[in-house]
């Protein structure tokens, strides 16, 4: 039923590429000195949010070492899937180690074409794969005794990191620290741009965040005769405050095969901006809607398949800033005066850890309220109801394919 109804809705058209604001973070000295963000950065960010753009570029962000991450990551991705599987964690839903989206995993497992072109992953029917790590100070070394980290539910957010080799561990761990600093600096600029104290969200993202760094690999695509493979990443939004993306400079921004952000009823390609690692893309995540009572909206985005003329592998590196999972999914008192007030003052706010699918499902299963088989459908209903209560848009993604399901990604 559901699939048939979705099939009647025409897919959104492709619009012109975004031209985003550049927020100059001026090297982050101000961030490390705990000073206010530069006025120029705040002004550029304010222009972006006044135009309701869910993304912008950041320059002079202090992030380096991503070439080492890509080099070590590529050496891992180019191994056979039988070897990579040893670094999968849980059911590939813990944001650790080697992961594939569930429908991509099914495609890969059923794939039996004879393919000669492309990388090892192309030949094994892999559409997209990623390698993911959580906060190294918590997710490595001895187990914490604090139940915040070590309880059965806490482990869902603080699963152990899994490393295939020291090269990848060293490169990603260094990049993690730099990306984290640039993300928190970005959030401080954002708070100032909303007219609030720049540290209004610090309590949520400093001591108890569970952010992750992930290297995404989209191999050269094999197009089987008469069938099209699933797209590189279905429409979704990230369960984050902000996501920082390092993307390769490409010449195919108008030809697909890259990141697109939805704007009304069109998908608009997002140019990598500057390139050479000089500029990162910032996207707003879904949590920012809860933290600002809908003043800001998360970016609905996807990664499309390339045109034949641009069919080559693509790498991107994402830092997903995830706040304290036990904090209410509502504006903290430091931000509340600067964002719209809630439609209902008696509204009960879930904690942040319940907003995303994996956190909610595991909570429901641990509490014995759902089996793993019915938890996903129950989450969907709960999410729609929670968003509706706050007056947030539904974020229904229209697609012909029943496996084009955003909740498979969040
Ligand atoms: O590869 C990209 O440009 C975007 C990746 C993405 O959306 C994600 O990792 O959540
Ligand atoms: Fe994403």
UniProtKB/TrEMBL annotation:
InterPro entries: IPNS-like_FE2OG_OXY, IPNS-like_sf, Oxoglu/Fe-dep_dioxygenase_dom. Keywords: Iron, Metal-binding, Oxidoreductase. This is Fe2OG dioxygenase domain-containing protein. Belongs to the iron/ascorbate-dependent oxidoreductase family. It holds the Pfam family 2OG-FeII_Oxy. Residues 208-323 form the Fe2OG dioxygenase domain. GO terms for molecular function: metal ion binding; oxidoreductase activity.
């Amino acid at each position: 039923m559901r699939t048939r109804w979705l099939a009647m809705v025409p897919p959104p058209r492709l619009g012109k590429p975004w031209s985003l604001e550049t927020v100059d973070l001026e090297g982050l000295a101000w961030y490390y000195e705990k000073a206010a963000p530069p006025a120029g950065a705040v002004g550029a960010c304010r222009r972006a949010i006044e135009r309701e753009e869910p993304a912008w570029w950041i320059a002079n962000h202090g992030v380096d070492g991503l070439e080492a991450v890509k080099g070590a990551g590529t050496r891992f991705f180019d191994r056979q899937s039988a070897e990579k599987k040893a670094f999968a964690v849980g059911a590939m839903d813990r944001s650790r180690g080697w992961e594939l989206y569930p429908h991509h995993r099914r495609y890969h497992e059923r794939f039996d074409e004879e393919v000669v072109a492309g990388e090892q992953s192309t030949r094994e029917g892999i559409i997209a794969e990623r390698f993911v790590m959580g906060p190294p100070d918590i997710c490595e070394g001895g187990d914490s005794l604090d139940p915040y980290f070590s309880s059965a539910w806490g482990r869902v957010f603080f699963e152990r990191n899994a490393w295939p080799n020291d090269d990848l561990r060293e490169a990603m761990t260094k990049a993690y620290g730099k990306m984290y600093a640039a993300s928190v600096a970005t959030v401080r600029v954002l708070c100032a741009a909303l007219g609030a104290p720049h540290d209004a969200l610090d309590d949520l993202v400093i001591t108890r965040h569970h952010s992750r760094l992930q290297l995404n690999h989209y191999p050269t695509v094999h197009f089987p005769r008469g069938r099209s493979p699933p797209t590189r990443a279905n429409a979704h939004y990230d369960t984050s405050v902000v996501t920082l993306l390092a993307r390769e400079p490409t010449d195919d921004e108008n030809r697909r095969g890259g990141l697109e952000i939805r704007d009304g009823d069109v998908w608009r390609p997002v140019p990598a901006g500057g390139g050479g690692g000089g500029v990162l893309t910032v996207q707003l995540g879904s949590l920012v809607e809860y933290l600002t009572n809908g003043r800001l909206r998360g970016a609905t985005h996807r990664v499309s398949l390339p045109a034949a003329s641009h069919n080559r592998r693509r790498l991107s590196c994402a830092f997903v800033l995830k706040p304290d999972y036990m904090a209410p999914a509502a504006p903290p008192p430091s931000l509340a005066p600067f964002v719209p007030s809630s439609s209902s003052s008696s509204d009960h706010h879930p904690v942040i850890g319940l907003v995303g699918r994996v956190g909610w499902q595991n909570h429901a299963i641990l509490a014995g309220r759902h089996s793993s088989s019915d938890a996903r459908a129950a989450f969907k209903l709960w999410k729609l109801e929670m968003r509706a209560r706050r007056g947030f848009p539904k974020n229904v993604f229209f697609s012909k394919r029943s496996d084009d399901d955003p909740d498979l990604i969040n």
